[in-house]
């Protein structure tokens, strides 16, 4: 489906907003963006976030390339009225970690300041695989190194140790609930990962994440932002989104 079908489906499923990935926005032409904005208004949907799948740590590319790409999408978010732009730090091998970290600090500092001037919260998402931001300690250190302009998006399935995270340390001592405990109070937005049928990324068939515990944590920190439903399981995608919508709303009812 295209973004306009997506908006219609979100409306039909009674969601409160839509969370776009930049790769699905096919043009930055103002006429096209205006149509997206008008369709969201027509259907009573907030654009909660624009997600960018960037990396500041590609050592074979100038960091300015990634910075300029993010700034372009901050401008799009400003036009669409999205209050949050999701960004990544990037990945690295162990021997390149310090260099990648410093490049990420440079990139995140510049784009978060650019976003702040536009009234947009540029927010860093944790991510496993070879990502340099894969534990709660990583998030806290990067936010400290960059400064107060940078926000944070908590991805429940992408902390190291999560059974759903592809490439993760699946049998390690990493405690992904501890990482959430460390960082939930800082979250601008929460991405909830669901894995009905097992995790497509890790290949694990029985993925259990304790959403009673996670929603209680969100209540404890008085989180009042958007919760974005992200399905990455092996069952039928559309039916799983319907199921996930129902189940997550039950969790919300329990803690309200």
CATH architecture: Alpha-Beta Barrel
Structural class: alpha/beta
Helix content: 40-55%
What's the CATH topology name? TIM Barrel
- State the oligomer: single chain
Looking at CATH, the homologous superfamily is: Divalent-metal-dependent TIM barrel enzymes
In round numbers, the mean pLDDT is 94
- For the termini, the CA-CA separation is 34 Å
Q: Main β-sheet, in a few words?
A: 7 strands, parallel
Q: Could you tell me the radius of gyration in angstroms? A: 18 Å
Task: Sketch the topology as an H/E string, one letter per element.
Answer: HEHEHEHEHEHEHEH
Q: How many independent structural domains?
A: 1
Q: Overall 3D geometry?
A: globular
Using the coordinates above, name the CATH class.
Alpha Beta
Work out the strand percent: 5-15%
Low-confidence stretches: 167-171
Number of helices: 8
Count of extended strands: 7
Across the major sheet, the strand order is 1-2-3-4-5-6-7
What does this structure look like?
The chain is of the alpha/beta class and 256 residues long. The protein has a single domain, classed as TIM Barrel (Alpha-Beta Barrel). The chain contains 8 helices and 7 strands; from the N terminus they run H-E-H-E-H-E-H-E-H-E-H-E-H-E-H. The protein has helices at 3-12, 30-42, 63-80, 97-117, 136-146, 176-183, 211-220, 237-255, and strands at residues 17-21, 46-51, 84-87, 121-125, 151-155, 187-194, 227-231. It has a 7-stranded parallel β-sheet. Strand 2, helix 3 and strand 3 (84-87) form a beta-alpha-beta unit. Helix 3 runs parallel beside helix 4 (97-117), helix 5 runs parallel beside helix 6 and helix 7 crosses helix 8 (237-255). It is globular and about 45 Å long.
